[in-house]
Amino acid sequence: xxxxxxxxxxxxxxxxxxxxxxxxxxAVGIVISLFAKDYIVNSKSNEMxxxxxxxxxxxxxxxxxxxxxxxxxxxxxxxxxSRIWIFDLNGNIVTTSSKDEVNVGxxxxxxxxxxxxxxxxxxxxxxxxxxxxxxxxxVPWGKDNDVYGxxxxxxxxxxMNETIAQLRETILWVTLLGIFFSFGVSSxxxxxxxxxxxxxxxxxxxxxxxxxxxxxxxxxxxxxGELATTINHMVEQLARVDLEKxxxxxxxxxxxxxxxxxxRTPLTxxxxxxxxxxxxxxxxxxxxxxxxxxxxxxxxxNRLVDxxxxxxxxxxxxxxxxxxxxxxxxxxSKLSFKFQPEAELRGTVxxxxxxxxxPQAHADPDRLEQIFNNLIKNAVKFTENGxxxxxxxxxxxxxxxxxxxxxTGIGISPEDQGLIWERFFKVERGRPVKHKGSSGLGLAIxxxxxxxxxxxxxxxxxxxxxxxFEVRIPLYDSRQYVRPLVNLADVG
Length: 492
Description:
- One of its GO terms (molecular function) is ATP binding.
- It catalyses: ATP + protein L-histidine = ADP + protein N-phospho-L-histidine.
- InterPro entries: HAMP_dom (IPR003660), HATPase_C_sf (IPR036890), HATPase_dom (IPR003594), His_kinase_dom (IPR005467), HisK_dim/P_dom (IPR003661), HisK_dim/P_sf (IPR036097), Sensor-like_sf (IPR029151), Sensor_HK_Regulatory (IPR050736).
- Residues 191-243 form the HAMP domain.
- By secondary structure, the protein is α+β, with helices and mostly antiparallel strands.
- The chain is 53% helix and 17% strand.
- The protein starts with 7 loop residues before the first helix and ends in a 6-residue tail after the last strand.
- It is built from 10 helices and 13 strands.
- It is rod-shaped.
């Protein structure tokens, strides 16, 4: 495992953990040292008081120090490893456990004498010129209420200092081990945090330049894992939004290009005719023909603008339908009568098949008429010396009215049948020039209107044989809807 010391998270975690462990163990060591020293001194003092009382039990019947008295003191000196002094009521040292007895004749502190004569043990420290101190205690010398003086025990503090030193050394080693352990733990924790953060940083850098292919692979279930999951979800959303944006931009580009193309042709034609008229290049008798062409081109541009407006409203869900019960048979009869003159000019006959049940659709009458108007107009446009058949029938099992517009025209190739619903798409392959000129928006509007009615539309076609468009519109149910029946034969 490689850890970069320049990473701020690693440095902060290592520093904070090591400093915390170091300060904590140092504080604990100091406290333990102080309390341990007091504990050892108190324990030693209590032990020495018990030893001094044992000495008193042995000599309490002797009021004058003799040879046997001194032998007992030397015995206890060796047994307890402590020097023993005996002092009288005035605090004068009368004998000691040492052979040289250099301290005989000296006096003990007045405060110690006073405390001992009151029946209380006294405790104090002496240095006596040595680097190591001496712990001293004094207890009364006597029997019952008769006090002859006091008994003093001196014990060096060497053993206690060594014990405290060993304790401090142990605390030091524990501190060093704690620092090493905290370094290892902090290193692992910082690595477990910085590694996923590096992945997140890498993914964020790619997102910043528009690359949404990177995914963060983190299996942990903690906050960082949740953050990685959130970022992955965000990247997916950004990728989807970016794709939709690019598709939208492409659609906008195609839309503007198509609109420009559709408008350029009639505008160019009208500009040429107007310049010819302005320059007097057209004879007086031929002007009416050119005026008629320009009027037709103007009407074509108006229809194009109307179609674009309708299509944009449909795609933006800005059209509200007026739901009524519509007599579909009557509507088809009306449109058949409307397009019959144009069909006759092409040698085509329109047949409107009657249905005894006269099915009723649940639809907006104006928009439904717009659907059939576009379908019949296309059938008439691409059918010559043929027939067009209009038929409507109720399909209760599917809950819809099935309307078919069938023609014996030039047909649509299989590869084009899936594209005819796209905006500005024109089936130009294999068609004579006289069939060109539509905007390519009619079927796109038809599909949007059918879907707005919660219906469906499909086409079946073969080249040279003809086409059949099938439209399914929800069937009107009088038990569910209470709306007036509209007979389109009586409208307008």
